[in-house]
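for the writeup, i need someone to sanity check this before i put it in the appendix. the sequnce is what the collaborator sent (i think, or maybe the updated version? ugh). structure was predicted straight from it, no edits. if anything looks off just tell me and ill rerun, i have time this weekend
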Amino acid sequence: MYLFDSNIFLEILLQQEKTDAAQKALEEMSRDRPGFVTGFALHTIEVISTRAGEFDVLSKFMQFLRNYPFLKRYDTTTEEEEEICRRAPSLSLDFDDAIHHFVAEKHKLVLITFDSDFRNKKNIQVLFPE
C-alpha cells in the first residue's frame, strides 16, 4: 500500500518536469495495492492550485479523487497531530513532511515522493519515482 505526497499530484496538475514519473507512480495502485493521500496534502494541493489560478484543474482533480477506486483519503486526528508535533524535531522534518512520515510509519505504507528530505529516514520505506 502506498502513501502519496502532494508533490506527486502537483507535478501532474501543474505539468512540471517529472509528470511522466508521477503518473507512472500512480499507476502502481490497484485493488491489492491501494493508495492513500492525507487530508493535509489535499489542502496543500488546493492552496497551490488556486494560487496559480488553476480552479478548473483543481475541480477535475477532485473529481478524479472522488471517482478513483484505489485512492483513499486519510485524515489525521488532533491527537495524531499533537504526536506529529512532538516527533518532527527529532526527525528533522517540517510539519507537513512529519505528517507523511507518521502516517507511513503508523500504517506501514510506502511513501511515494519527490522530496529529498525523506532520504535515509528510519522506520519507513520511501520510493522516489525519478
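The chain has six helices and five strands. The chain has a mean pLDDT of 92.
thx in advance!!
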